[in-house]
Design brief:
The complex is a heterodimer of chains A (438) and B (281). Chain A is α/β, with parallel strands linked by helices. Chain A has helices at residues 3-25, 39-56, 71-80, 93-101, 109-115, 117-120, 123-128, 151-157, 165-177, 194-206, 208-215, 224-239, 251-260, 276-279, 320-330, 333-342, 364-378, 386-389, 392-406, 412-428, and strands spanning 28-34, 60-66, 87-90, 130-131, 134-135, 138-139, 142-150, 181-183, 263-269, 287-290, 304-307, 310-313, 383-384. Chain A has two domains: 3-142 and 306-378, 3-Layer(aba) Sandwich (D-Maltodextrin-Binding Protein, domain 2); 144-304 and 382-428, Periplasmic binding protein-like II (D-Maltodextrin-Binding Protein, domain 2), CATH 3.40.190.10. In chain A, 50% of the residues lie in helices and 13% in strands. In chain A, helix 2 (39-56) links the parallel strand 1 (28-34) and strand 2 (60-66). With 281 residues, chain B is an all-alpha fold. Chain B is 72% helix and 1% strand. The chains are: A alpha/beta (438), B mainly alpha (281). Chain A binds chain B through residues 72-73, 76, 79-80, 95, 98-99, 101-102, 104, 188, 191, 244-249, 253, 392-393, 396-397, 400, 403-404, 406-407, 409, 431, and chain B through 33-37, 54, 114, 118-121, 137, 139-140, 142, 226-232, 242, 245-249.
């Protein structure tokens, strides 16, 4: 062997052992693709989940890859080609059934027993993640819709948080008279924001029992309670409750308008809590949050249940145990406390018992709202958000179709008729997500 | 032997264009959610499109878009290129200025227009409103949304045409222009009888490409309105995208893609015919 060859070979061996060594020491890799998160939020995930999990599980090495807002499309293509990460992060229960049917997801029933998820996770969510009797997904976070309001502005005008639809309308009219936008709202950055208002109307006006029947196919979406709900929602739009710039504003801009007092209330989801500390203290204002008022005959407030993302394990995963261990870690009291303290509204994992959880985010109102929601879910007294329980094409039509009603390009009857037709087609195709019994 | 030189390009074309195109055409005859096994449904996707009013809105919007882009930027590009030809001083500077929007990423341009021009909060529009002018954000009205998006794309596009036309005009023999001037021809007469006929092949090519590109338009529409409000700015490509990735109806999306390709195919046929004539003459 020539001396030059010997030296090159030795250096090569040293280099490869230097590269491979730490990788082996780090344990078996678990890959996790996540949606978009800003650098600060990525820091929370790193210090709150990744690092402590890897420290507690030296056999595994959990890695995260931020894929942006189009994650669900990338994930579908990757899984279709037999690739993709170990932890499958879907855009909601709607996608779980077809993925499970296509054999892309691993049944998690063994892990339910191993990790005691039946006792630790609210039963409703275990039902929602099932397909053909087997569990395939767990929700990363669950959320609800309610009414945020500017408490300081309310006190200044002597207003009280509304508890009925009639009170809400009287209050909104008073705001309009004061040139205050009643509903801080906008869909410029996220067009599906429209469905937040439809979900609110369907649950608070038509009532969750009727929505449940419609989802089960026992009541058509063209039934009278839904006509009343959409008509009421449309009347709010026509009266100007949503303000003149709905299609121009992002939800963050509209939240800022509520904090500054240009708008009075914001019908929106609990994910907005993450913006409170950014906008309310600088405006010297205090935020309030209540359940959305209900119409006569609907006991309320109704808390519509929403799941915007779920965790599964890929069927092709070479490290399924590691992926399940990471998911289990995310569903721990510790992670709930840490993540909800730093990033409230985005990590409300469905734990059955929150009494031992320590959350310190300076937002007791958030903790209270989540507790109320957990109780409502535990008592089976919850409503249904459209993005969680409607099949994809029905939901997609709903988002654009309600704009047609608002802008006078179709009537409530036409809207509901097409919604119903699309729903029936998708129901026949088996695309309606699992609906837990009430 | 020299034909072997064609193999690499042909191979690339077959792999990244021909096979996906064939698969797309095949998928148009299947019902598929993009996840489970496709089911053959014959012409059902095309029938569904025929009765889908959103499809007709999208097709009409594509035709309006094509009409706008076949006239406004071509007229502006020709006019500016001719002016650059007549007044040579500073022509390089203006070419750079006109061409600048073309080199900025469309996503950035769209966000700049949305936030700094159209927005009633942070844009020029909002400033005008606060000054008392009754302006609106065009992206928020069904009657103006498509025109609002087209304005952004026209601003980005016309400078490119101007530079192309200017390059073509520079090839026109100077004597012809001088002679026309000596004969007393006005600016418009020179343009009508000398310059435009001289660069007709370039104009024809650009018009054909405009038709093809108009049916492929996606980026500005998707970023600025996602086809809204109320489907008013929906175009075929956004309809296909929404069908495939939101409705999980990949077969329907493929059927829309086939319709888009048909228009491109007609335009391409015209292009090839025009080229053949040019070669023959």
């Amino acid at each position: 062997m020539k001396r030059r060859t010997f030296i090159a070979g030795t250096l090569g061996l040293l280099a490869s052992s230097a590269l491979i060594g730490p990788a082996l020491a780090q344990g078996k890799t678990i890959t996790w693709w996540y949606e978009s998160a800003d650098p600060k939020q990525q820091g929370y995930i790193k210090s709150g989940i990744i690092e402590p999990f890897n420290a507690a599980n030296p056999d595994f090495n959990l890695t995260i890859d931020y894929r942006g807002t189009e994650l669900d499309k990338q994930m579908r293509v990757a899984l279709l080609s037999g690739n993709g990460p170990d932890i499958v992060y879907t855009a909601g229960p709607t996608y779980v059934a077809p993925m499970a049917r296509a054999g892309q997801l691993l049944a998690l029933d063994d892990y339910v027993t191993r990790y005691g998820w039946n006792d630790r996770i609210l039963p409703v969510f275990l039902e929602m993640g099932k397909y053909d009797g087997k569990l395939y997904a767990l929700p990363k976070t669950y959320e609800t819709l309610g009414l945020f309001y500017n408490k300081t502005l309310f006190e200044k005008h002597g207003w009280k948080a509304p508890t009925t639809i009639a009170e809400l309308e009287t209050l909104a009219d008073a705001m309009l008279a004061e040139k205050i936008v009643p509903f801080a709202s906008g869909n410029a950055n996220w067009r599906p924001a429209n469905e937040h208002y439809v979900s609110i109307a369907l649950n608070s006006i038509a009532g969750p029992e009727n929505v449940y029947k419609a989802l089960k196919g026992e009541l058509p979406w063209t039934a009278e309670p839904f006509v009343k709900a959409i008509d009421t929602l449309n009347s709010w739009w026509q009266k100007g409750y949503f303000g003149p710039n709905y299609f121009s504003l992002s939800d963050e801009q509209s939240f800022a308008q509520m904090a500054s007092g240009q708008a009075g209330m914001m019908p929106s989801g609990t994910w907005q809590f993450q913006r409170v500390n950014t906008y309310f203290p600088p405006a010297n204002a205090e935020v309030g949050f209540v359940g959305f008022p209900s119409a006569e005959g609907v006991s309320g407030p109704v808390y519509p249940l929403g799941v915007g993302s779920t965790f599964s394990v890929a069927a092709t995963s070479k490290n399924a145990d590691g992926a399940a261990a990471a998911i289990d870690y995310i569903f721990s009291d510790k992670v709930y406390g840490v993540m909800n303290s730093s990033w409230p509204g985005e990590w409300n994992t469905p734990l059955a018992d929150l009494s031992k959880v320590q959350v310190d985010n300076g937002l007791p109102i958030y903790t209270e709202a989540m507790k109320t929601l957990a109780e409502a879910v535990g008592d089976n007294q919850y409503g249904y958000t459209t993005w969680t329980f409607l099949p994809p094409a029905t939901n997609s039509y709903l988002v654009s179709g309600i704009e047609e009603v608002w802008l006078g390009r179709s009537t409530t009857a036409q809207f509901l008729e097409q919604l119903n037709a699309t729903f029936l087609q998708e129901k026949a195709d088996g695309k309606v997500p699992a609906i837990p019994a009430r | 032997m020299h034909r072997l030189y064609l193999v690499p390009t042909l191979l690339i074309n077959v792999v990244i264009i021909f096979i996906p195109a064939l698969l797309t055409v095949a998928l148009a005859f299947f019902r598929w959610d993009g996840i489970t096994t496709p089911v053959f449904v014959g012409l059902q996707n095309f029938q569904a499109l025929w009765f889908d009013r959103v499809f007709w809105t999208a097709l009409t919007n594509n035709l309006i878009w094509t009409g706008l882009f076949l006239t406004i930027p071509i007229f502006m590009g020709l006019l500016a290129a001719t002016l650059l030809l007549v007044a040579r001083r500073g022509s390089m500077f203006f070419q750079v200025i006109y061409f600048l929007p073309m080199i900025i990423a469309t996503a950035i341009l769209a966000r700049v227009w949305q936030g700094m021009i159209f927005s009633p909060v942070s844009g020029v529009n909002g400033m005008l409103q606060r000054m008392g002018f009754p302006t609106i954000d065009p992206l928020t009205q069904p009657s103006t949304a498509l025109l609002g998006i087209a304005t952004v794309d026209l601003w980005h596009w016309w400078g490119f045409l101007c530079v192309i036309f200017f390059a073509a005009l520079r090839q026109v023999p100077q004597e012809q222009i001088e002679f026309a001037r000596l004969e007393g021809a006005s600016f418009w007469q020179i343009m009508r009888h000398v310059l435009i006929p001289a660069i007709r092949p370039t104009i024809t090519l650009m018009m054909i490409m405009t038709v093809i590109w108009s049916f492929l338009v996606f980026d500005f529409v998707y970023i600025l309105t996602q086809g809204g409000p109320a489907f008013s700015s929906e175009v075929l490509s956004t309809l296909a995208y929404r069908s495939a990735f939101y409705d999980l109806a990949v077969g329907k999306a493929a059927a829309v893609a086939v319709v888009i390709s048909l228009f491109g195919l007609v335009a391409t046929a015209f292009y090839i015919r025009a080229q053949t004539r040019e070669f023959q003459s």
